[in-house]
Amino acid sequence: MPPAVAPAGRDLRLDLFRGLALWLIFVDHIPQNIVNWLTIRNYGFSDAAEIFVFISGYTAAFVYGRAMRERGFVVASARILKRVWTVYVAHVFIFVIFMAQIAYVTASQDNPLYSEEMRAFDFLQQPGVALLEALILKFQPNFMDVLPLYIVLLLALPLVLLVMLRVPTVALLLSAALYAATQYFNWNLPAYPTGTWFFNPLAWQLIFVFGAWCAVGGSEVVGKAVQSRVALAIAIGFLALAFLIVLTWYFPRYTSLIPKRVQDWMYPIDKNNMDLLRFLHFIALAIVTVHFVPIDWPGLKSRWLRPMILCGQHSLEIFCLGILLSFVGHFVTTEISRSVGIQILISVLGITVMVAVAWLITWYNSIEGRGSGSRPKADLAGGEA
Amino acid sequence: MKFVAGLLIGILTYVGAASAAGDVCAVASHLVHAEAALPHVAKSIASAKTLNVVVMGTTSSTLPGPNGQALAYPARLEAALQKRLPGVTVRVISLAKPRQTAHEMAETFPTVLKELQPALVIWQTGTADAMRGIGAESFQGTLEGAVDKLKESGADVIFMNMQYSPRTDAVISTATYADAIRWVALGHGVNVFDRYGIMRQWSELGTFDLLAATKSLDTAAQVHDCLGRLLADLVIEAASTDPEKKEVTKQ
Fold it and tell me: What ipTM, to 2 d.p.?
């Protein structure tokens, strides 16, 4: 969040909101889950993905930026690449579990209504090719598209930091230029079997680099402006407007209240290329959040928010766990019971498991002497997926 | 008790009769409503006493097997429309073919319009594009370009979105394509037949067990029959909507 000026200490808000994003991503990744209605994507343009990528950019720049200042480009890059490797291995691990689940579903189910849709499983007839394409990140099954984005963003991070630490504004401008060019020329990376990446890294890098820019001092530059009453009023106005527009998606009758010219200009609000409206909506959310949740907000120390913060502190592990749990949740809600009660139960259970595992990791780190007290850098780095 | 039971049956029959789509399908009839008029359909019915409908789509507009064609929703739509429009010659021709993208279908429109002279094109699309990884933006562009041309050439359009298919959600992401369909429909005054929402409603209420592992066509045929009848409801409702009035209320 922009005015999060705390280079020395740890900004618990980052952990808190990343934990929240992880919970939301888990819940959203179970299709047909009634709990989805609670998540922010139904009330505005942006969703948990923006929060997650922004905070990832912020923490990555915070941790590796310091490493680059203190130990130099080579050491920092080596650390980043080690991190990339961890994320990659996690991605491949999830892919294997995904394949196992799909193999089960296709072997046991057949229905004449869905002969068309079931062809989407055709890749199983050539599992070798699918595996190969997954290893080079071209094959990204539904909901397995966030980690590939993160891998690409981390790969570019050494170069980004190199510029960022010298002339932060130039780095941000370069990022914005790449974003603009991507929108204009329709650049994207290719996917398997056809098409392009769901999260276009060339577009989504903007919010990652913006997060990084805030972390290396950008938040001090814009801090005053962001904390002003005028900015707050504009942000709240924008959020309210976005909410009303989103309402018309669910009540199409009122769509005609939005002038046609505005609609033509506004739609589609593209998630693949992170539409500018999504970016602005995220910024508005951030401004409002930072205003109501200052860095010394006592609630950050409350035991009620501790579970969310814990999850945010081990984000790569909890993110992967959330994806696996959402596979299980999807399986249960389609194959075993479609009742609303089960959907709520699965969501609550899943989040409970995420919190329990986050707590376990913290406990394990503490007995291994890797607590946040002894190695703050490692701890932060550990929680920056 | 008998009185109460009689009253209940009376109410149920009344409710059943009130919905033209019939009892089983009716639980989803609130999801079917006309957002735009069908002037070409209205004109064709009124002046020519004929109604030619073309269904453009993919495999999900068909059913397998020797009786598949008679059981699939295009044929059921024809039967339902014929019943609702006595004295009008109704023809529904299905041009559904596997794996056709919106773009591939749009390329055939000029020939289709010329040869079959439809007053209405039911355009079922989105699934093939999602599966073949056609970008959602280019998909939307195709729809936008084609819809205006169809209207100019004398055919109304009704979009039909994807089937509700939770099992394949893990591999095909159709939401962006459904949104694209909705946005084009809103922007160009076209009706959407929300097949996804309707089937989801049936699945959630247990009207049909859509996900059972079966080779039998029984449920599939009932589903298509309901789809055809609800689609007929939409056509009739939209065709009797006064386009002038609709415009006025929209302003």
Answer: 0.79
